[in-house]
Amino acid sequence: VFASGFSMEDEETGEFLLPCRLCSERCFKNRSKHKNRECYNGCAYFFKIMLGDYAEKLRVPPAFVPKLTIEVGENVVLQGPSGEEWVVKLWGTDKKLEFSHGWENFVHHHGIEFGDFLVFKYICESNFKVRIFGRNGCVKNITVCEHKKINTDGERMDGKEFIDLVSEECNVDAKVMSQNQRRKAEPFSH
């Protein structure tokens, strides 16, 4: 065990866990470079309700911007509910940032609709974990891919099979579709 200065909460058990040495060192390096060290505590959260022009870009709450350790114009990685990663551009000014190029692919692929509720967990550097809830307050039923990464053009960096994530009464069960029901992932196109 080592002194990390912060811990993370396990989403399933609610227990507080210490990060591994590599994560701790990386976060400490970011923390020391961060403009406002008091606001950076390892992990931070914000939520957004999908209203207005959410499908093409999504504005990061202005109060959250000081917590970021990345620069405008850099790519960020959004990890969806399945664990797959989507590369999205962070664009705007120092005070007004938004997820732009690549965001529309994330929205399309996850079936995000008007009124959905997204929770963003900022982990370190340029990584966010995203939870998606429908208007009913439950985790959404989402068809997602098992592949590792999607670039900003919506192209999969390695194509694999689909799995279904099924939500019943807010309890999420992952069901792998039978061999004959699987279909190949197709990149999003306009």
UniProtKB/TrEMBL annotation:
Coiled coil: none annotated. Residues 43-136 form the TF-B3 domain. SUPFAM superfamilies: DNA-binding pseudobarrel domain. The keyword Coiled coil does not apply. SMART domains: B3 (SM01019). Keywords: DNA-binding, Nucleus, Transcription, Transcription regulation. The keyword Transcription regulation applies. It holds the Pfam family B3. GO terms for molecular function: DNA binding. PANTHER family: B3 DOMAIN-CONTAINING, TF-B3 DOMAIN-CONTAINING PROTEIN. This is TF-B3 domain-containing protein. It comes from Taxus chinensis (Chinese yew).
